[in-house]
Amino acid sequence: MAQENEHKYLVQSVAWRKQARRGEHYRQGYLSTEPERSVRVRVSGNKAVLTIKGSGGSDHNGLQRAEFEYPIPVEDGNQILDHLCRQPLIEKTRFRVSQNGNNWEVDKFEKENDGLMIAELETSKGNNSPAHLPSWIGEEVSYDDRYENANLVEHPYSEWHPGSEKPDTKYHWKAGESVAEGLKRIIAEQLHLAIWELSADRSPMDHGVHEARKCLKKSRSVMRLFQNILGKEYEQGNAALRDAGRKLSPVRDSQALIEMFDELNDKYRDDLGDRSLISIRDGLVKRKKSLAREFQQKRTRGVVLKTLRLFARGVGQWSVDEADLPALSKSLARTIRRNQQACRTAYAESRPESFHEWRKRAKDLRYHLNLVSKAWPEVLDGFEAAAKNLESKLGDDHNLVVMRGTILEKPAAFGNEEDITAFLKIVDDHQKKLRSACRTLADRLYSEAPKFWRRRLELCWTAWKVEHG
Predict the structure, then answer these.
(1) DSSP per residue over 326-340, as a string?
(2) Which of 95, 208, 395, 435 is the most buried (most CB within 10 A)?
């Protein structure tokens, strides 16, 4: 069994060409792109090989992988590439460059991945990068799963390279479409936006993850309005998008805790006196880096993108003719009813789980009001803003719960006991203020009975359609 220990870099200039030997053209494809076991076939000239690679694991920060390689007949290799491998194939020309005692391999990609150039260097000493890099070497992308060949099959560079256009989405029904038409359009747009956000070549990574998670939550929320009509499509789709969101959540949630810490540290600075609490923030930052590294090593982004692409392809085929105005208004009334009940339960039980459940229902209400807001924007926009404010405060409440649990689970990672005690007191005090503010907002937002909401939407919707012909 061989072990490969690769470092990958973007190529930022053509200066390498002066030292490059003649290039060798590769066609390669994948029978499996799973992170734990990729199976690749490569044909170059009169040679063909079958390669099996294991996962990076936890050693050497995931750069070292088990690799098995076997020669196969060229004719067999081409048959496998053309008929059995995932499409599109990877096509590239590999150049070898010797510089500063290192042997570089520079891959110039073609077709769907045209414009991408990556330089690879194998090292033998742990995961150490060379001390002196050539001037033509750019950013290291060893931990960025987007640049792995197996991932470029599923998500070609042409779809997410710098300059690719962000999808235009409208998260509301349009005047000229039916409820059923809008349902499928809205979900499809959100899924394609999530794919773009996860694939876009920009930093920080947690921003794209955060935006993609919002798209998944929006998709699930609009599906929830018609879960009885969607039936099996709802059950399977909701489960798939929920699981995809959970895979993304550690990266974003770890950043949210840092942002919450900074907010509390600034807001209660006078109460903290001379305490800097820097050790707590350092612990949160280290935790985020560890989770981000795990996210890359497991190729989580690629796994989620595969799920989203597969699900998005089926949305247009849904049979949702029964999704009409009465079904929509009935579902909105149900959303109001669920919010009212979740609010009562949260204050009656005072458990973190109850407040978190209320948060999910409040998020649904916010999204559902946004979806129908064009029917009477002067009024519905105000309700949607109030629901957004409530959901935001309940989100902060949840982050405080997670913050407390994270620190108490491994207190040694967050500094001395006195600093932790002082900070957790601030967490508790702030949470009490948030829950008081949430009660006030809820009293206003939930003041009308669900049946009035149903009647209001049907009248506003009908008038809106008449107004726009």
Answers:
(1) HHHHHHHHHHHHHHH
(2) 208
- Which two structure tokens, joined as six digits, stand for 258? 């840092």
What's the start-to-end Cα distance of the chain, in Å?
Answer: 70
Stated pTM of the model: 0.78
At 60 the pLDDT is 45
Q: Which of 30, 157, 171, 234 is catalytic?
A: 30
Kindly state which CATH superfamily the domain 2-159 is placed in.
Hypothetical Protein Pfu-838710-001 (2.40.320.10)
Can you name the residues that pair with 49 across neighbouring β-strands? 42, 71
Q: Looking at the domain covering 179-467, what would its CATH class be?
A: mainly alpha
Task: Find out whether 304 and 248 touch, Cβ atoms under 8 Å.
Answer: yes
Q: Which of 77-91, 190-204, 353-367 is predicted with the least confidence, judged by mean pLDDT? A: 190-204
Q: Indicate the residue type of 331.
A: S
Domain definitions of the chain by residue range: 2-159, 179-467
Question: Catalytic annotation on 70?
Answer: no
Cβ-defined contacts of 434-443 (< 8 Å, 24+): 434/393, 434/394, 434/396, 434/397, 434/400, 435/347, 435/355, 435/397, 437/393, 438/390, 438/393, 438/394, 438/397, 439/347, 441/386, 441/389, 441/390, 441/393, 442/339, 442/343, 442/390
